[in-house]
Write a structure and sequence with these properties.
The chain is mainly α and about 190 residues long. The protein has one domain. It has nine helices and no strands. Helix 2 runs antiparallel to helix 3, helix 2 runs parallel beside helix 5 and helix 7 packs across helix 8. It is globular and about 45 Å long. The model has no long low-confidence stretch (mean pLDDT about 90). Keywords: Membrane, Transmembrane, Transmembrane helix. InterPro entries: YjdF-like (IPR014509). It holds the Pfam family DUF2238.
């Protein structure tokens, strides 16, 4: 993982992904001094994902999409897009869970929990399961935030189920794509 992290970017897309990572770090640091704690916490939760996509050695395009998607998901909460735009929540759950399921596939294959994505059905099933698990964890975090931190977090049964359904669909799409295309760079170091 460290070898992938320290490898210099070799394409315009890789440079863009690194730029998004740098912006995410700067925004989180600035938010420490300018935003309420809950917004800082939400933005901070995007940092592990934007760093992990680089460390896992994802293809530069997938790396960029992962960084942008995760940071847009966090930022949408801070600027209240989920309340302003009907359906935005479902779009973000679909996209964000999809890219995180792809990252999970790479990590699971590198740690030999699953076979590399050579078999066509394995990534479809594993990505979908990983996406549904990630969706469930996220919904538990939302519930915890609503119950113990602020009632400004929107939590209803229908919202939770809809979010998990969208996340599962995004993960399924990621699995189908992973069954047909490599998710990682050819020159990357395995975990």
């Amino acid at each position: 993982m460290y070898a992938n992290l320290k490898r210099p970017p070799r394409s315009a897309t890789a440079w863009l992904a690194d730029a998004v990572r740098a912006v995410a770090i700067v925004v989180v640091i600035v938010s420490l001094f300018t935003l309420p704690f809950t917004d800082v916490a939400v933005l901070s939760m995007s940092l592990p994902a934007v760093m992990l996509s680089r460390m896992a050695g994802l293809r530069s395009g997938l790396d960029l999409v992962t960084c942008v998607t995760v940071f847009v998901a966090a930022g949408s909460n801070v600027v209240d897009l989920y309340r302003a735009w009907t359906g935005w929540d479902l779009v973000v759950h679909l996209a964000c869970t999809g890219v995180l399921a792809a990252v999970a596939l790479v990590i699971l294959a590198d740690t030999r929990v699953i076979e590399a994505t050579g078999r066509r059905r394995t990534p479809i099933v594993v990505a979908t399961i990983a996406g549904l698990a990630l969706s469930a964890v996220w919904e538990m975090i939302e519930w915890f935030g609503y119950r113990f931190i602020t009632d400004a977090i929107f939590v209803t049964y229908d919202d939770t189920i809809g979010d998990m359904l969208a996340g599962g669909a995004g993960a399924l799409i990621a699995g189908v794509l992973a069954s047909r295309f490599s998710l990682t760079r050819a020159d990357r170091a395995a975990l």
